[in-house]
Amino acid sequence: MIKPMKNSFNIFLISISLIGIQSMISCKKSDTETNPQPTQAQIIENNIKAALDSVIANTHVPGLVAGIWAPNEGINLVYTAGEANLETHAPMSADMIFRIGSNTKTFTVTVLLQLVDEGLISLNEKLSTYMPNFPRADEVTIEMLTNMRSGIISYSELVPFLTTWYTDPTHFWTTDELIALAANADTIYLFDPGTSYSYSNTNTIILQKIIESVSGVSLEAQIRSRIINPLGLINTAYLIGGTQLPGYHPSGYWYNYYMPELPELTELLDVSWAAAAGSMISDIFELKTYAKALVDGTFLSDTLQQHRLACHDMGKSMIKYGMGIFEYKGFYGHNGGIHGFSSLMIHSSQRNCTIIIWYNCFLEDSEPTDLITIIPKLIYPEL
């Protein structure tokens, strides 16, 4: 569900619009007597708003919500743009709950790593310890599953999965079903384990299986007791299944491609298909709290946290991937893409900056992750 950062025409449009905004601000600086000069923080926030408005103006994204907090620079921006529902034209609201997609992986891997800290699992253990019948399981380590270096194909890209997904959208998927799709694929491994990188939802579903086997407790209960409750989150939840999106939320549109003839997808598909790889929900304020705790090391020992943040190259992307987390120029976090929703969640401990952005759609050519090269640089030009 994650898509590597890419250069797109939308980024070009946004960049051009920013040049115009910055030029207008510069021209007005001489009129100090009649017009009070904006602060640097106000200029930055106006440029961020222009970038976000450009997304709505130049793409098929219906609506967005963004929270950008950089208190050291005086930035405290919560901003919405576009529509929450294309039929009623209701506006987006910052208080809305949304499907966070693959940001769920950060929760799943955090629980796994807590079990490592507790001595119940070792990152060097082989998959064969837990799933001896999985092909080549003696070549795959637990760590490879966390950092997407196992080579195991993603079940969500396979024809048998997609066929059921489209023909029986309310089908409830078990972890065994999802894992079996990959285990029975014609090509199970895209490369020899540990030799390269390939993003795969199967890796995280296998981790779910291991977590539940070792602990004897469901992943949902583990996430709730280890992360959600300690942080006091009330709008964040792991959904085991079902089509319902609880709470105050918008309509969600499209999956990968802009197809206006399709129905809106908010509550069309059973979310069990994403499970540990993407079934959670939250809002921007709770993700802000979580992202800071995730990156600052609240959940893990210092040694394991540092190991988690040691990220690897993702091929041609400027983003690097660690254990259930990615890094871009000192910002750590994840992104998410699921039916009807896409999002970006990043935090920099060094800069004390958190950025949460989500769209009520999932389009390959228009994702919040595209803004990872733009928003941080508007705040920190040296990037």
Quick take:
This protein is 34% helix and 16% strand. By secondary structure, the protein is of the alpha+beta class. Strands 2-1-12-11-10-9-8-7 form an 8-stranded antiparallel sheet, sandwiched between helices. The protein has a 3-stranded antiparallel sheet with strand order 3-6-4. It has a two-stranded parallel ribbon with strand order 5-13.
Low-confidence region ranges = 1-30
Order of helices and strands: HHEEEHHHHHHEEEHHEEEEEEEH
Query: Which CATH top level class fits?
Result: Alpha Beta
The general outline is globular
Query: Structural class from helices and strands?
Result: alpha+beta
Estimate what percentage of residues fall within beta strands. 15-25%
Cα separation of the termini: 27 Å
Mean pLDDT: 92
Instruction: Tell me the number of strands.
Output: 13
Q: Can you tell me the CATH topology?
A: Beta-lactamase
Q: If you compute it from the alpha carbons, what radius of gyration comes out, rounded to the nearest whole angstrom?
A: 21 Å
Helix content: 25-40%
Query: What would you give as the CATH superfamily?
Result: DD-peptidase/beta-lactamase superfamily
Examine the secondary-structure arrangement and name the CATH architecture. 3-Layer(aba) Sandwich
Largest sheet composition? 8 strands, antiparallel
Number of domains: 1
Strand order of the largest sheet: 2-1-12-11-10-9-8-7
- What is the count of DSSP helices, taking H or I runs of 4+ residues? 11
